[in-house]
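Hey team,

Filing this mostly as a record. A colleague (T.K.) asked me to run one chain through the structure pipeline before their review meeting, and I want the input and output archived in the tracker in case anyone asks later how it was produced. No errors, nothing strange. Just documentation.

Input sequence:
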Amino acid sequence: MIIKTPIAKIDIERPSKDLIKRLEGIGSATASGELRKLGINAAAIDGLVSFVPGTSVVGPAITLQYMPKREDQFPEGEYRDPESQIHRHALYHVQSGDIIVVDGRGEISSGVFGEMMLTYLKGKGGLGIVIDGAIRDFGDSKELGLGMWMKGVTPYSHTQTVQFPYAYNVPIDCAGTLVMPGDIIIADDDGAVVVPAQLAEQLAEAGGEHAEWEVFVRIKLADGGDLRKYYPMTDEARAEYEEWKKTNG
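Output structure:
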């Protein structure tokens, strides 16, 4: 007898659009550094790389958890009893600006999503996927305009080999990093960083200042400025920076 997997029916709490906009200019590297100052030492999801270079996203996480496959818990056949497939229910909850984050157990022989599922994600306004694992149908999926951070690609379907989707919008381990439903993801070519929802406002404030002085320093270094003076900024350079801010709004 097949035991149907429990299906969570919870949604996430989403941040304001204003907060997301303020976080968009920060970048994963700055976010990681500033989160360390706020007490979060390892915010990056290590080992995942961008499969769509040049893409950057900021948005709340809908989480999806995979578990080792056991035949009494999941029926054979990719399309049998579709509504028992938990990865579909995670997608049903997607709203504009969301990011799907998956504990795929590091398996690259399991295509967590394929082109059809990702097309649905795009159609719902989702921004991208962050997967400790793989997808299939990459050739077509990469043209959808979604951000994709993962370990690899595969021809296998999501349950064809060793695992199956078990729960969504629960705390997950994504490549060794804790992700809570509703945490904010900042992802770009440097990787994906998890921002605890309760620290997002503080990060936006600190990260915005950081990003601003980096613009100033970049200008000075491009003009041949002394690295010893401008990076990190000396007191003299910081005085210049304050004047630059006044001039440039």
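Quick notes for T.K.: Residues 1-6 have pLDDT under 50 and may be disordered. The domain at 17-196 is CATH 3.50.30.40 (Glucose Oxidase; domain 1).
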